[in-house]
Amino acid sequence: MASTTSGTAEGWKAKLNKALQEKNFFTDLLQKIEDKTGVRRMYIVIALAAFLGIYLMVGYGAQFVCNFVGFLYPAYASVKAIESSQKEDDTQWLTYWVVYSFFALVEFFADIFLFWIPFYWFLKCVFLVWCMAPIASNGSQMIYHRLIKPIVLKYQNKIDDAIDKAADRLQEVGDFAEDIGRGAANDAIRKRMADVTKDE
């Protein structure tokens, strides 16, 4: 049991170390900090994560910080995915945003109860990081495939019918507004023409 836990921890450590060696803005910044302080980037990231965790538990503006964490990197990764030719990263980030939106909707209606959960913003931030984690079975994959996808597939025909009816109704309203606008414009032109002929 202990060797399995140790092996898992070593696996996570190796993945984190590999991610911290990739070339990007964040790792370039870490390299500068590492060069100036002499502290390895792995420990810098762990210290930043610990500080963020403590801040989310007791700091002012924890809601903003949590939502910022849940938005910033996924938005950046989504833009990169859109610009890449691979389909897998598009699917990964679309899945994240579907789960993020679902969670935001549930959170909106459950807000009065969530207020009473101690360290809620810390827990939400951990949840969002789990959802965006670069592993095959991250939170967004699990929630999408086990919860959201079955519900959507079960009610897909009803949802499509409702969307079609709403689109038809919206088209009718648009046509009606266009007719009213065209009629008002024609009336205004006729009135102006009548005024011009009176003046002559």
TrEMBL record:
Compartment(s): Membrane
Coiled-coil ranges from the UniProt annotation: none
Biological source species: Mytilus galloprovincialis (Mediterranean mussel)
Similarity comment: Belongs to the DP1 family.
Residues annotated as transmembrane: 42-73, 94-115, 121-139
Topology relative to the membrane: Multi-pass membrane protein
Domain of life of the organism encoding this protein: Eukaryota
Annotated InterPro entries: TB2_DP1_HVA22
Record flagged with keyword Zinc: no
Protein name (Swiss-Prot/TrEMBL): Receptor expression-enhancing protein
GO cellular component: membrane
Pfam families recorded: TB2_DP1_HVA22
Record keywords: Membrane, Receptor, Transmembrane, Transmembrane helix
